[in-house]
Amino acid sequence: MGESGMDRLPEGCVAHAIALTSPRDVCRFSAVSSAFRSAAAYDTVWDRFLPSDYRSILSRAVRPVVCSSKRDLFFRLCDSLLIDAGKMSFWLERSSGAKCYMLSARSLSITWGDTPQYWRWVPLSDCRFSEAAELVNVCWLEIRGKIQSRMLSGRTTYAAYLIFRLADWSRGLGHPPQEASVTMGVQHSSTHVVRLQPNDSPSRVRARRNRIRFGPLVRWGAMMLEIAADQEAAAEEVGDARDDGWMEAELGELYIDEGEDGEVEMSLMEVRGGHWKKGLIIQGIEIRPKA
């Protein structure tokens, strides 16, 4: 339909129609014609894309949020908003309006997290929160976070990510690998193995040394073992670089149905064998729709 045809429709009718799509589609429609552009400014359009509990979320904001329209409020909420005394971050996914959160390191349950011998809390200029958790040295790594499923958007598949980086002096986070999981009750669970650091297992280290020190035949065999170890590690490593300079490792995924009400628990653990590890810096756990 051409622009002249759209101009004959009441703006309220056009607004009602485009409100049934998505924020991404509305922005695309606005570039098509002036009729769409005018209708896209209606509060009734953007009120549909705002979460039903947005007023409650705004009341938990560290700083007041003032916007002149629902459209402006939607796009303000697409940027990170600190809530709950700065221990949690909230935002909307720009394309769909789905709710996203990051739990700060301080809001997580970190075994021995308040024992300076094992963990310390450090302020970082590029951290979303006032402080991050830095691993000094532990043999029992256990990190857990919880969120209520009703805080998330229904009919959406979410994934949880550990947001971290490694200090230059980090050790022991490649072998043995960590176990990551996301669970809700007994019916919904996702568990897999990850490595926050390249595989530094003793067998791989020995293979590398043998390749350097001994004759051609031994070097060839050691090299094959090292390649096999590299391939195994690559299948397990999930740490990816982010645009903000941090890394993320997926802990698992979970589908949230409409009206779902339960506790979602996310965890990263390595508690077997007494292997010591250090140099892990944790900003928090992020929960966002699965790409």
TrEMBL record:
Stored InterPro entries: F-box-like_dom_sf, F-box_dom, PP2-like
Superkingdom: Eukaryota
One Pfam family per UniProt: PP2
Coiled coil: none
Domain F-box: 7-46
PANTHER family named among the record's database cross-references: F-BOX DOMAIN-CONTAINING PROTEIN (PTHR32278), F-BOX PROTEIN PP2-B12-RELATED (PTHR32278:SF111)
Descriptive protein name: F-box domain-containing protein
Organism of this sequence: Musa acuminata subsp. malaccensis
